[in-house]
Amino acid sequence: MTIGVCDVNPDETQRTVYFLRSQIKNNIIDNENVRFVSYNLDSVMLDIDYQKFDCDIFITELLYPNGKNGVNLAKRINAVAPSCKILFYVNKIPEELDIYEANHVNCMLKGRHDARLVTFMNDLVEKMNNDDKKQFIKIRYDRNVNILDCRDIMYIKIENRVTIYYTNRKNDQRDGKYYEYRPLSEIMKELPDNFVRCSAAAVVNRDYISNYNHQTVTMVDGEEIKIGRRYGDVNANRKEKVVQ
C-alpha cells in the first residue's frame, strides 16, 4: 500500500511522514507493506500528468502558494485514481473553499487531531487491506500506472509473456486492452471473487461469460478460452452459480 503526503513545504511533509512512520514502528498502524511517498505540489501534478500516480491514500494540505489549493488537487486525483482515499490534513479550513467539491474521507486539523489521525489511518489501512469486495486494481506498464475498475475487466490472458487485460473500455483511441508484466497468481489476490482461473494463462470475469462447457469458456465478445485440466472442476463449480 502506498500513502502519499503533500504539504506546503518539505518540513511539514516530512513531519507528517515521520509521525505516521513512528506509529507504524510502534505497531499502531500494523502493516509492514505500507510505503510512504513525500510529494510537493509540482511533483504530484507531474505524476498525474505522466500516469505515474499510484497512491492508495493521499494526505494533503488545503492552502498552497500562488492561489493553488488542495481541493482542486483532490479533484484531479479523483479523476485519474478514483480508488485513492484522500484526507485533508490542514492548518485551517478556509471559508472560501468547499472541501465537498472533491471526494475525500476526512478533514483534520494539524496538532489538534494528531492522535485522531493515527487512529483513523490505522482503521483505514486495515479496512482497505481486508476488503473482500475489491473494486479497483492498479497495473503498471512502460512506467505508466493505470487504475482499472474491476467491473470493466472481461478477462485477463498471458500472451507472449505479457499479461493483457481485456476490458469494455473501447473507444476511438483505445482497443480496450491494458498491459503489464505480472503473474496471474499475484493478480488473483487483488481481484474480487467473481474472477476465476481457467488455466495457467487465463482468468475470466464470470459476469462476462456467455456460455461454457468442460473444455472452453465463451465470453460475451466471442473470445473462446480453453479450460485447463487442472482448473476444470474448480471453475465449473464456481461458474454454475452465475450461469445457471
Automatic annotation (TrEMBL):
GO molecular function: DNA binding
Signal peptide: none
Entry keyword DNA-binding: yes
Keywords assigned: DNA-binding
Domain of life (superkingdom): Bacteria
UniProt keyword DNA-binding, yes or no: yes
Domain HTH LytTR-type: 137-231
PROSITE patterns found in the cross-reference section: HTH_LYTTR
Name of the protein: LytTR family transcriptional regulator DNA-binding domain-containing protein
